[in-house]
């Protein structure tokens, strides 16, 4: 583990010097006994209620700043609403994070919030580097004392610090890496921000295998040891080791640009013939990797799996006519199509697939005579829920065995089905070739890890029909508009998923072009082709 400490920062202007803290712009307002002159309430005073006023906000933030700047962590902590958590963080800034100087400039208070800019100097074993960031504190009313107090949160120290995490400076435990795509092009966080958490994970896992040497850094170490550290400042680089990934710089750049159109967007691209992950992008770009770790209902993109199961059982074929009424009831649950559309009973299954007819799928449930059929298909053919070893942490989907109405919901990607952009992209990749190839972001040869394998492949007949139905969706079905700009042999499936009663459904879209499959989800994006569709199309146009 890299050695260091937690950190605390406040608004104000101060200088932190070796051997102790000094204060600059403000006088110390602390009493000699360390209880502080700011925000105190005498025993005879009436306990105040309600939000702090402007004067209290100014006095409390100033007093907190001055106490910390004077080196009195105890007094500063007493000016917060959680002195037990605050004191060790405040005390450790100089000694363990190795900040030798800091100028913190407050901005104008906005209500109870006081923003500030930190310009610090970090020094460790002869290496020195400036470090700047912005954060804020909030002044609240103490519940029992009535005092105006700083609301203690880890973000008071640093905006990226989370509960239980620590801020450290020292020699890194793992060597830096220079990640490259499958063509040898360098991949970095600045150019490809969505790769930040992924590159951190790859470094944590493979840094010692890439041949580099550790540097000196300031970083956030998360409370969960399974998560990677986040490097905030590099004082000395060390020697990075080269790490080959399966990513494609062109597809990644397109993915980064595409998700910026929508807040809450994620996309993944996978090469069907190999399982190589070509792109991963999220908006927001930093933090939780929703594209690979998210868990939510995928809507009608799940119909790829459902259609494969129905065709494998011989219950339907791409060309056989099926019913697509406005509504269909099964075990007291009524399902309907978007805008309650219906199709003539002479229309083939391909039309119901391309138009995303829910009722056509629901009306075939009785014929399966097995509530668990879909769960088995997802696991045994598409590899959903197996232990994937992509090279970074991922959630590999779930289609639990259900009965009754819950099983029916799964047919159209609702209920207990849980997916993310990675798993849906993999479903399309499997449909494209008929064989599940576990997605990977670094080659298996790097560490010899065991990849997940599905029990069986689809027949050539079913694979061909799935491809034809997805081609129909892209050429004249619900995916037509989104896929119009995509060339090559192309196919698609749209989806929308209503989650927790939200007003606007999540937008899902998946598609392929030649030997590249991609899937995207946009939170509250509406119809699949409207939001997620253009994201997938942009990645498919750029991929290889």
Pick out its properties:
single chain; 544 residues; alpha+beta; 5-stranded antiparallel β-sheet; 4-stranded antiparallel β-sheet; 16 helices; 18 strands; globular
Task: Walk me through this protein's architecture.
It is a single chain. By secondary structure, this protein is of the alpha+beta class. The protein is built from 16 helices and 18 strands. The protein has helices at residues 54-69, 73-78, 83-95, 196-206, 249-259, 290-293, 303-312, 349-354, 358-362, 365-368, 373-380, 404-411, 421-433, 460-475, 480-483, 532-542, and strands at 14-17, 20-23, 99-106, 113-124, 127-141, 148-150, 166-171, 177-180, 216-221, 230-236, 241-244, 265-270, 277-283, 327-330, 333-336, 490-497, 506-513, 516-522. The strands form six sheets. Strands 13-12-18-17-16 form a five-stranded antiparallel β-sheet, with helices on both faces. A hairpin with an 8-residue loop joins strand 9 and strand 10 (230-236). Helix 5 packs antiparallel against helix 16 and helix 7 (303-312) crosses helix 11 (373-380). The protein is globular. The chain starts with 13 loop residues before the first strand and ends with a helix. Mean pLDDT is 88; it is low at 1-44.
């Amino acid at each position: 583990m890299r050695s260091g400490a937690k950190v605390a920062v406040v608004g104000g202007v101060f200088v932190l010097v070796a051997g102790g803290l000094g204060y600059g712009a403000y006088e110390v307002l602390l009493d000699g006994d360390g209880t502080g002159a700011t925000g105190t309430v005498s025993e005879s005073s009436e306990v105040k209620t309600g939000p702090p006023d402007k004067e209290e906000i100014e006095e409390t933030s100033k007093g907190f700043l001055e106490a910390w700047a004077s080196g009195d962590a105890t007094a500063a902590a007493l000016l917060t609403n959680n002195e037990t958590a605050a004191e060790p963080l405040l005390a450790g800034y100089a000694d363990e994070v190795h900040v030798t100087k800091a100028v913190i400039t407050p901005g104008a208070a906005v209500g109870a919030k006081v923003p500030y800019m930190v310009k610090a100097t970090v020094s460790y074993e002869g290496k020195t580097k400036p470090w700047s960031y912005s954060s804020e504190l909030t002044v609240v009313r103490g519940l029992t004392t009535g005092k105006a107090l700083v609301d203690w949160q880890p973000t008071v120290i640093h905006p990226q610090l989370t509960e239980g995490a620590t801020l450290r400076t020292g020699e890194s435990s793992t060597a830096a890496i220079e990640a490259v795509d499958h063509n040898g092009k360098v991949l970095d966080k600045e150019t490809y921000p969505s790769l930040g958490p992924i590159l951190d994970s790859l470094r944590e896992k493979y840094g010692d295998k890439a041949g580099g040497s550790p540097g000196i850094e300031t970083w956030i170490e998360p409370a969960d040891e399974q998560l990677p550290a986040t490097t905030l400042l590099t004082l000395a680089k060390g020697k990075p080791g080269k790490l080959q990934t399966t990513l494609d710089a062109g597809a990644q750049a397109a993915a980064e640009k595409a998700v910026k159109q929508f807040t809450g967007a994620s996309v993944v691209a996978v090469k069907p013939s190999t399982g190589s992950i070509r792109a991963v992008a999220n908006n927001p770009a930093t933090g939780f990797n929703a594209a690979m770790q998210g868990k939510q209902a995928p809507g009608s993109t799940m119909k790829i799996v459902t259609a494969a199961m129905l065709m494998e059982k011989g219950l339907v074929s791409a060309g056989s006519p099926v019913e697509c009424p406005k509504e269909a009831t099964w075990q007291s649950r009524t399902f309907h199509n978007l805008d309650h559309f219906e199709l003539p009973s002479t229309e083939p299954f391909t039309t119901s697939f391309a138009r995303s007819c829910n009722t056509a799928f629901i009306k075939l449930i009785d014929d399966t005579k097995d509530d668990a059929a879909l769960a088995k298909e997802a696991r045994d053919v598409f590899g959903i829920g197996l232990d994937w070893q992509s090279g970074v942490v991922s959630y590999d989907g779930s289609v639990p065995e259900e009965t009754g109405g819950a099983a029916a919901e799964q047919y159209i990607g609702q209920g207990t089905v849980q997916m993310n952009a990675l798993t849906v992209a993999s479903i399309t990749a499997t449909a494209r070739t008929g064989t599940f190839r576990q997605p990977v972001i670094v080659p298996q040869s790097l560490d010899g890890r065991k990849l997940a394998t599905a029990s069986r492949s689809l027949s050539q007949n079913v694979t061909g029909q799935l491809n034809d139905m997805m081609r129909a969706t892209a050429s004249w079905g619900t995916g037509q508009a989104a896929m119009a700009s995509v060339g090559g042999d192309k196919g698609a499936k749209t989806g929308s998923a209503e989650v927790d009663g939200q007003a606007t459904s999540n937008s899902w879209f998946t598609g392929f072009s030649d030997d590249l499959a991609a899937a995207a989800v946009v939170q509250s994006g509406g119809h699949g082709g409207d939001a997620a569709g253009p994201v997938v199309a942009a990645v498919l146009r750029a991929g290889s």
